[in-house]
Amino acid sequence: ILQMVYMLDRPVKLQKINPPAPTPPVEARPRTLSASAIEILMRDPYEIYAKYILKLKPLEELENPLNTSDYGNLIHKILEKFNTKFPNELPNNAYSELIQIALDELSKTNADSQVRAFWWPLLEKTAKWIIKTETEYRKNITHTYAEVQGNIQIQAPAGEFTITARADRVDITTEGKINIVDYKTGTPRSKDEVNAGYAPQLPIEGL
């Protein structure tokens, strides 16, 4: 009886199936990608295929709770407003200014009272660290630009290809050099990933 049970799951034939390898025609492929999309293309080309060629979009949840991504977007917006308001030297009341911007931006979100109560201590702690770090860092900076956009055209085999990028922040140093800053509220890319070329966002923004 036991042998009969095993036979129920025994396949009649074993056939190896090749992994999917979609090769859409060149004219159907995107001719413009952002820096972040280039990284996705390197790591998971099927996501690019689904998003830019098949035009697939995930359905939104009926009740979509705020998550760490929303918190990251909030931090980005706060810093954009702060750096736009103070592109050069910081004022004496820099912490108060940053906290006020944080309050204003938090009030614009659809976060409920529980989420705000959870986020606010994080915002205060982050604001203290930012002002402490910026006070020392800006001694070597002449001007700060927020949300800087750029693009570059590359002559590819199938014609011109455009790569776009938007840097969270670009700083001009006292030596006339450029610092490109990318904010990360989650886990940053490891040094090994960057050195191996699997985290090309900052190098592309530099280009």
Describe this protein's structure.
Helix 2 packs across helix 3 and helix 5 packs antiparallel against helix 6. This protein has 8 helices and 4 strands. By secondary structure, the protein is an alpha+beta fold. The protein is extended.
List descriptors:
single chain; 207 residues; alpha+beta; four-stranded mixed beta sheet; 8 helices; 46% helix; 18% strand
TL;DR?
The chain has 207 residues and is of the alpha+beta class. The chain has helices at 2-8, 35-43, 45-53, 68-85, 94-108, 113-137, 191-196, 201-206; strands at 32-34, 141-156, 159-173, 178-181. Helix content is 46%, strand content 18%.
End-to-end separation:
69 Å
Order of helices and strands: HEHHHHHEEEHH
Q: State the helix count.
A: 8
Kindly state the percentage of residues in helix: 40-55%
Radius of gyration: 24 Å
The proportion of residues in beta strands is: 15-25%
Q: Provide the structure class.
A: alpha+beta
What is the topology?
Blueprint: H1 2-8, E1 32-34, H2 35-43, H3 45-53, H4 68-85, H5 94-108, H6 113-137, E2 141-156, E3 159-173, E4 178-181, H7 191-196, H8 201-206
Parallel strand pairs: 1-3
Antiparallel strand pairs: 2-3, 3-4
Helix pairs in contact: 2-3, 4-5, 5-6
